[in-house]
Amino acid sequence: MPGAKELDPGDGIQQYLGNVVREARLALGREWTQAHLATQVFSSGSRISAIERGEDPPDRDLAKKLEIVLRLPPGTLVSLVRILTEQNVRDYAKTYLRRQLEATAMHEFSLVVPGLLQTADYARAVMEAGLPGDAAQIGDYVRRRMERQTVLARPDPPWMVVVLDEAALRRDIGGGQVMRAQIEHLLDLGERPHVNIQLLPMKGTPVPGSVALLTLPQGVRGAYTEGFSTGNYTEEPAEVMRFQRVYDLLQQGALGVRASLRLMRAIAKEHDD
Q1: What is the pLDDT of residues 116-163, one digit of tens each?
Q2: Fewer CB within 10 Å, N side or C side of the chain?
Q3: Domain 91-270: top CATH class
Q4: Is the pLDDT of residue 6 over 70?
Q5: Which CATH number fits domain 9-87: 3.65.10.10, 1.10.3720.10, 3.40.50.11460, 1.10.260.40?
Q6: Buried-exposed string 5-38: b where 16+ CB fall within 10 A, e elsewhere
Q7: 228 pLDDT exceeds 80?
Q8: Do β-strands 159-165 and 105-110 pair in parallel, antiparallel, or remain unpaired?
Q9: What's residue 4's pLDDT?
């Protein structure tokens, strides 16, 4: 675990929050190590270390727990987290992407092929459509997305269950060749024991956004939701449970795994026309 470093409260809100947590922990006595604090708030030592270094601020639920355990006045940390949330609207996906690499299980409903399951050509086509910009910049985004996919190839890959809108495979993104290659990639991934892909038929009720549920090593759960240009990641239990119900209802309306694979093969052939 990286050692603590001196933080200047003037460096920024994340650093200031980390300094508050660290000073409050040390004030409680020598036995209050980062690992000990982690057990008191049902987190991990590495997470507490990242918070104190100003690299990974807590969400409001964890902030409330830290306030209680560290005997801080109510609102001391929660207010800072609220400011950070408002300040970092454009960075809404950063925490989710970090947690995704730690997760032991992922359950996702998506209107497009999820990033961890995308081919490079499909990813580039999606980015060019939704994120017009410099070709070199998009190329860098694609490279980083492909690097993240190594999480599915590690010795202990996360259990991943994806409910994918059928329209995502029928929509011609990048041309027929790109779409056929993307669907074939999904078929290959579906053969892996830790990846399940189910299609939600187009006749079902339209859903205005995507939702992803993560289970983390310490049993903490998170929910990430995304619309056209905004998103939100939360680990607050009530919010996670709310989106769990949404996901469960969507999965109930999805085809089974085998039926989904058959439909994917049929749609792939349509992209040859």
Answers
A1: 999 999 999 988 876 655 666 788 888 888 988 988 988 889 999 999
A2: C
A3: alpha beta
A4: no
A5: 1.10.260.40
A6: eebeeeeebbbbbbbbbbebbeeeeeebebeebb
A7: no
A8: parallel
A9: 41
CB burial readout 165-175, b (16+ within 10 A) else e: bbebbeeebbe
Any residues with CB less than 8 A from the CB of 220 and at least 6 apart, and which? 42, 43, 235
Q: Tell me whether residue 254 is exposed, middle or buried, using C-beta atoms within 10 angstroms of its C-beta: 0 to 12, 13 to 18, 19 or more.
A: buried
Distance CA 62, CA 56 (A): 12
pTM: 0.68
- Cβ-contact 123, 142 below 8 angstroms: yes
What the block records as the tokens of 102 is 């730690």
Q: Is the pLDDT of residue 224 over 90?
A: yes
164/199 Cα distance (integer angstroms)? 5
pLDDT of residue 130: 64
Q: Structural domain boundaries of the chain? A: 9-87, 91-270
Report the interhelical angle of 120-130 vs 176-189 (nearest 10°): 120
Is the pLDDT at 5 greater than 60, yes or no?
Answer: no
